[in-house]
Design goal:
The structure is a homodimer. By secondary structure, the first copy, chain A, is of the alpha/beta class. The first copy, chain A, contains 14 helices and 7 strands.
């Protein structure tokens, strides 16, 4: 098993922390602190710890790694294991309300798979992690906008081909709420019940989807659900469980949602497709696109 | 002289650093670092120093104080005394192009002084200091919008009265570019050549206006110009020169532009009026207004 791990991480040139990330780290820390405790003293302690960790973190790490550290500090200081619990429920519920609308959109669409892929990316906007991006809940407007928007990185044809051949497909979920949108895409994939394994986070981290959320939105009944062994808002390859790494290595095709998974898995030798919206300058630069662009990117090595 | 200083700072409850300020500090630091040096190593060193200072700074300080520290670090590390020099020239030049348009707006206005005050506040949008706020240069659109917008805090009648009585008026400028807008307001004040003293920063800090800028936009010929003895992006009362404090204390009326001056001078016993646009959550909370609101606030003690 360790041999496999070695092969996977050997070529790892994942998206690394940039100077611009630090203001975002502090914004996240303060938002999480405010959500987790009413004590100003404790909030300040959290800020201090995050500042200290910001001084220690290596620029060879991914932003997601720092996200893991930040939210661990918040949990440990406040003893609140899941500060976003209520908001996550709200997001799942709101997204579920939109589920019939999205099914209709796909149903009426001439290119059902493209529409479903775009919806899955539209769902990626529901994110608390990255500073201030589309927190308002005009999701219907976002959906309509995304459906009109072309892919800035467009490997859709290869995506479709890979999908038609793969016996086993690993689908890496990102956020709560968003997984309802993922459900719409998953249901457009033939034989999804047999072929797809959904990967969620092991334990709560920001608004990332866990098994509980997969159950709440009706996905856990339809596909196998595993977790990555992580409590990070994305994937950190050398912190994942061996079971997950084994699944990652043996899958014929991987569909990776969101920025946090991209950060940790880009430039690995995997048959992977990244579906995301570029939400900040750092990832836009990495992908050579503009902030707000839609991405359906096949890993160059896949 | 020290006795005067004591009287002024005695009641000081200036706007203090809030948790949300820290992400903004790092954003400013990184932007200034990127503008000042091409060396990634040096940029990282600047970030490290700013993180260390963020750990040390007292929450009893104002955001402006941290701004002073940040930009001192950038200058010392990069040996670049004025990284914003070119941009400042550009902003002055661009604002000067709008000067005839603004004079016309005032000329045609029924309430010339109100229009001039609003223009002076519209100019306050030209700021690099506060994260990402209106950096694009659609200034004409901003002007039109601001002229339509009511004051959220409206002490205009008292402002007008104070203006009619004051023998000596101290006008605290804020930014480059913006001082062209200030010129429009100043020129609407009767006897401005005799009554007004313009206060600029002693040396370059971000895009704040200095004597050179007052000269560049034609204000130095028209009114007396002094400096605050500061290299901070605002006013820090216990770091100002005694000459400035003397002027501050002896003026019949003080017109203070922008957030940085408000942060340091709010809640002092001065006959002061603050003209600004609330550019971030922290100041909006302090003023009990919304981000983006126009403020013409008389100090409650004046």
């Amino acid at each position: 098993m360790h041999f496999l791990v070695f092969i996977i991480i050997d070529k790892g040139v994942a998206m690394k922390i940039a100077l611009e990330c630090f203001s975002c780290f502090l914004k996240q820390a303060v938002e999480a602190a405010e959500m987790s405790t009413e004590s100003e003293t404790m909030r300040r302690e959290i800020l201090r710890e995050v500042l200290k960790e910001s001084l220690k973190i290596s620029f060879d790490r991914t932003p997601v790694h720092m996200g893991m550290i930040i939210h661990r500090i918040v949990r440990e200081k406040t003893k609140n294991p899941d500060p976003y619990a209520n908001l996550k429920k709200k997001y799942n519920a709101r997204a579920l309300e939109l589920y019939p609308y999205m099914k209709e959109l796909v149903g009426y669409s001439k290119e059902k798979l493209v529409t479903a892929v775009k919806l899955a990316i539209a769902g990626n906007i529901l994110d608390f992690g990255i500073g201030g991006y589309a927190k308002d809940f005009g999701v219907k407007e976002i959906i309509d906008e995304v459906l009109e928007q072309p892919f800035a990185v467009d490997n859709y044809q290869n995506f479709r081909k890979a999908l038609s051949k793969a016996d086993s497909i690993l689908y890496l979920a990102d956020n709560t709420g968003e997984i309802v949108f993922d459900r719409v895409l998953i249901e457009e994939i033939p034989d999804y019940k047999k072929r797809i394994t959904l990967v969620v986070k092991e334990s709560p981290i920001i608004n990332d989807a866990t098994l509980e959320d997969a159950e709440a939105v009706g996905l856990a009944d339809q596909v196998r659900v595993i977790n990555s062994g992580l409590e990070a808002p994305g994937t950190i390859i050398d912190h994942c469980s061996e079971d997950f790494l084994d699944a990652l290595h043996s899958a014929d095709m991987i569909i990776s949602k969101g920025q946090g998974n991209y950060e940790g898995l880009s430039d690995l030798s995997l048959p992977i497709f990244f579906l995301l919206k570029a939400k900040c300058k750092v990832i836009a630069r990495d992908l050579d696109v503009k902030v707000g662009d839609l991405i359906l990117k096949q890993d160059s090595k896949s």
